[in-house]
């Protein structure tokens, strides 16, 4: 079985951390980095409540690139187990069923909610978060009969999407209706991340929403707002010209290009704010967006999220910000901003019911409220992983949005 695995070794970590700054391909050169291309053994069903899934497509997520570029904070390391097969954006076909599985059949097309919470770990007395359906906040991600792992794709026992197959607990598996294509299926996971952030922080009617970043998650946030039919103004800050058309297609009212000399004035105008000039340092923005969804996770994007928020506004952090220096937090207290984090997906309040985020995403696709298949711009075999990773990390040169493996 072909698999792309991450295996932490100190000497490889140090070498690629240093050399990769000069030659980025060193981050994924098997002989030199923590990434290895392995002919591994297929993962076995942990028990009869699990299924084996043959992978059709698995996406390359920004968090996967963060991992390979060694940008993750060490604070996440207790929640993984090495070596793990990478990949958590998964659409596939059921290849094997545990004897306790009902409602699923061999050959069913499915997507996988990769969060490894209490139920998947065989913990019968669920933690308070899981009892409330907040599986992404599970407090027992290092316990139970599985090795540590936040999700499939960071746990050595389950396998991951960057391989030909993996295993998943029955609670993680969602059947795809015929109306939802495989290319939409591989987008269910990132779309659910966006849905979770929007449903937990819904814009009000006539709010102005700023989305910083027009990559996969930023575009999905715009698509989620429009699919949910929330009547608000959406302004998107995009880094690359090719992202502008896509942002417009998925519902942006205005798209501002991140051009160093002009974006501050252009974005302030779109938000109906005012640029103020301090005695030195970056411009101060008076006024701004009611809600900012920060989908990049860099120093500049976080600073912009804070300064382009209106007084009393909200900033939602989706961009996997890690250890960042020189963030100016002045506006948080001066303008009484609310800063919220958003991680993965869970169970949402939706149309008067508690519904899993994945179910909502699939239903919106089935009903024709959103079609994300055009966001899949590049497909690669696992053997061509170097080209795939180079494409995913050089979006401007390749006009890449979502890059996927096709085992």
* The CATH class of the largest domain: Alpha Beta
User: What is the third-level CATH name, the topology of the largest domain?
Assistant: Quinone Oxidoreductase, Chain A, domain 1
N- to C-terminal distance: 10 Å
Rg on CA atoms, Å: 21 Å
Share of helix, binned: 25-40%
Largest sheet: 7 strands, mixed
Superfamily at the CATH H level of the largest domain? Medium-chain alcohol dehydrogenases, catalytic domain
Give the total of beta strands.
20
Q: What global shape is seen?
A: globular
- Contiguous runs where pLDDT drops below 50 for at least 5 residues: none
Helices and strands: which structural class? alpha/beta
How many helices? 13
Question: What keyword list fits this structure?
Answer:
six-stranded parallel beta sheet, 2 domains, alpha/beta, seven-stranded mixed beta sheet, single chain, 24% strand, Rossmann fold, 407 residues
Description:
By secondary structure, the chain is α/β, with parallel strands linked by helices. It has two domains: about 230 residues, Medium-chain alcohol dehydrogenases, catalytic domain (Quinone Oxidoreductase, Chain A, domain 1), CATH 3.90.180; about 140 residues, NAD(P)-binding Rossmann-like Domain (Rossmann fold, 3-Layer(aba) Sandwich). Helix content is about 25%, strand content about 25%. A hairpin with a 2-residue loop joins strand 17 and strand 18. Helix 5 crosses helix 6. The longest helix is centred in the middle third of the chain and has 13 residues. The model has no long low-confidence stretch (mean pLDDT about 95).
